[in-house]
Hints:
Strand content of chain B: 15-25%
Oligomer: heterodimer
InterPro entries (chain A): ABC3_permease_C, ADOP, MacB_PCD, Macrolide_Exporter_MacB, Perm_prefix_1
Distance between the termini of chain B: 22 Å
Largest sheet of chain B: 3 strands, antiparallel
Helix content of chain A: 40-55%
Number of domains of chain A: 4
Pfam families (chain A): FtsX, MacB_PCD
Strand content of chain A: 5-15%
CATH class of chain B: Mainly Alpha
Domain MacB-like periplasmic core (chain A): 94-331, 547-721
Order of helices and strands of chain B: HEHHEEH
Structural class of chain A: alpha+beta
CATH topology of chain B: Arc Repressor Mutant, subunit A
Radius of gyration of chain B: 15 Å
Strand order of the largest sheet of chain B: 1-3-2
Transmembrane segments (chain A): 92-118, 368-391, 418-442, 462-487, 514-534, 772-796, 829-850, 862-884
GO molecular function (chain A): transmembrane transporter activity
Largest sheet of chain A: 10 strands, mixed
Amino acid sequence: xxxxxxxxxxxxxLQLDREIRDExxxxxxxxxxxxxAAGMSPEVARRDALLRFxxxxxxxxxxxxxDAGLGVEMFLRDLRYALRQFQKNPTFALTVIGTxxxxxxxxVAVFSVVHSVLLRPLPYRQPDRLxxxxxxxxxxxxxxxxxxxxxxxxxxxxxxxxxxGFAGVRTGKMLLAHRDxxxxxxxxxxxxTNFFSxxxxxxxxxxxxxxADAPSQGxxxxxxxxxxxxxxxxxxxxxxxxYWQRRYGGNPAVIGQRLSSDANNGSEIxxxxxxxxxxxxxxxxxxxxxxxxWIATRLTYNNADRKTLIYRVxxxxxxxVSVANAQSEVDGVASQLRRDFSLWQTSDCHIQLHxxxxxxxxxxxxxxxxxxxxxxxxxxxxxxxxxxLLLVRMSLRERELAVRNALGGGRWDLIRQVLAxxxxxAGAGTLFGLGIAWTAVHELANFALPNQPxxxxxxLDATVITFAxxxxxxxxxxxxxxxxxxxxxxxxxxxxxxxxxxxxLAGGRLLRNGVVVAEIALxxxxxxxxxxxxxxxxxLQNVDPGFDARNLLTFxxxxxxxxxxxxxxxxxxxxxxxxxxxxxxTGVTAASPFPLADQxxxxxxxxxxxxxxxxxxxxxxxxxxLPGYFETLKTPLLAGRSFTEADSAPERxxxxxxxxxxxxxxxxxxxxxxxxxxxxxxPEPEWVEVIGVVAHQRDTSLTETGREQxxxxxxxxxxxxxTRWAIRTSxxxxxxxxxxxxxxxxxxxxxxxxxVEPMDDLVAQAQATTRLAFLLIGAFSVVALLLAALGxxxxxxxxxxxxxxEIGVRMALGATKAKVFSLIVGQGLRLGAAxxxxxxxxxxxxxxWIRSLLVDTKVVDPLTYVxxxxxxxxxxxxxxxxxxxxAASVDPMRALRSE
Amino acid sequence: MAKTDLQGTVDLLxxxxxxxxxxxxxxxxxxxxxxxxxxxxxxEEGSLYPALHRMEQNxxxxxxxxxxxxxxxxxxxxxxxxxxxxxxxVEKNFEQLVKGVRAMLRYA
Lengths: 899, 108
């Protein structure tokens, strides 16, 4: 306590100085007064007072010295002393600082991920009251379904007692015609009018939506005929702050304007959102994170709409309501719906509530926690290493410390000295560690999976930095206290008497060996993981996706919609011709959906058997393509023929299937000329004829084979369906972007060209998850390996010091330098062997964690295990090198004499 | 043996003064010790003020600024509970020291 007060005094030294001066002056003045009262003249009285008092400055200094006597100034001196020690031996200091920096850097980087993903509250008002409602069709084994418009209305009305409100949202893209004649594609979110009030979104300018903006059509079935009132005017819109800035330069006059040039029909802009409002949904929900335009949506109440599951639903619980209570209320709504509607009944549909934060991070949580565990382990190992190194160093200075003790340096002085060194090292290490973490987090945010909204917002903030500081102090305590306590009870006489022997190092050898073996085991397991990821990554590079991604440019062309199939067909042909006319373009095609760029949806297909038994229908992806698709993408045709222009017509029921579907549908015969049933254009299945079989394409992921595939012509779907184009170019495809743009503009000023991307980029994005996992595990394992090497070095150095005299004896008795050298290296290798053995077991136990990340790689991959074992032996041998050299250069005479 | 030294003596004198007078400034303490000891003891200002500061830091005395009867600002000190306890200890130690020294002198 008094120590604290001294600290405070030091901080306010100026104030203290003034107070002391005042006090001394009042003393002198009082003496002067008394002297005058006793009859002296004022001048004499004052001189007498001063004389009696002595030198006020000297007294003042003595008073201040009371503070300095103990505490901070002493500590500063310790720090300076520590600094000098490190200057004398910079390799040691740098090794330790590096070790701490690696440990802290990894931990802080991972913690900042944990912080932004798991700990930071969602950016909404009272986010703990928000729940996401999803549909779950138990008979069809599907969950996480959105809601249809009438289901939403029923849910909202049925669960009113427990909820302050439900908000619905669906996102998409829209083509906007601007007044200047240009077209623009914007991201839109259609929302119920209460959306911002339920989530707590702030409107910066203008107003929020109100119920009158999009009256929902009641909650009774009588309202099944849509009311026409207000249907003609487009519903109003609110702009995102970012879009407002980008498109309108932040001009407040946009309020009241129409969104598009169509003055009668365009949405009126009624407000602008405050910056940074995000729609946070997990990637699988396929929701835009940052819509440009928010449009009030009109909920319909047609039973026919119950099949259209489009709205994502967020509810706000009333203050006193628990999730469990709300769930049972919602269960009641669902069972009523199951009684009323056959779709609900046959699919056994239920409504599931999830606290919003949990819903968002459910997928990420296990891997984030695993990462955190790994990082914490790494930090512990780093601390153990540093403690070990400090101990080695203390042992070298043991005599110095003992002498200092003998000369009157108190126990506390020695402890303080060791702690000062530890703190200096920890401080520097923490600073560098923060630097490492900053870089790592920056990289992570750069390359974070674009679809993981919470990961993209990872950054270092005050909380994280505080965390780092606490960890630094904790680390210093962890590795400082051990050696400090060791030092503080030196068996003084033993040390002084024993000369070179190190009593300090005698104890804890088993512990140190154990730590090193654990380090090797851990880094071995991590490296095995990294090795497997590397193999996967290499495999992924060589995966045959069923197309040739090189020299392929993809883009979407959105042209004003033509009404008749003939017109649409003509538009497609015009675009096709325009693109073909570009010199250097050797192939042009379009498809929808397009591999690796779009979402794929399954349709139902079946063979003859399915006619009698509808359970025989199975799922396959479908893709609508222009003739020439397989030729342009260089997808091998395995049997039959590919589409011609003549095939592309609504009445020509011709399909091409991939080899997987062919093998499934017609396992022992040729598929060509056979018929299958598909359900796409019509509610009832229709017959189509197979004219060709092509190699399988990987459509949504490179890591998985994916579903079987059916290809249909654009004409089959009524033309104009395939909108994502691909051109095969000679030379760098991205160079063709501007040329394509000018050609398309020339063809039609109204057409919009978006998402221009070389196919190679799409492939790279599809590899991102694997690459990220590989880099993370790789970085961790390299750090762990470095630490393990340091650990081996530390333990062997200690051991060499301890055994100096033994080695001397051996050499005196005829052991060669080579023999001594191999003795020490052998000791290192024995530790290494133990670590590798345990590491093998650990790696095998942990391998199931990594299985889902691997691509065509077996979990027990002999090549990986053998290779990494070899690498480890090498590293351990290298780490033993220096201590072994030191041992081999022991001068037997000196070693023996020092005994 | 009781831990007593010269510094301890100054502490004892100051603490005792404050115990006897209640509240007093530095100059008053000097005067009081002088009168109360029949002019036998004089505390140097050079050791008084550092001692006051140290005892304040140790929480034995507390200080506040106030006006003297001659309307000068002065720092007044008074005993705290901890100071009172400490005084008892120091007094006991001093008694022992005196007893010891006296016994020593009487030894023939």
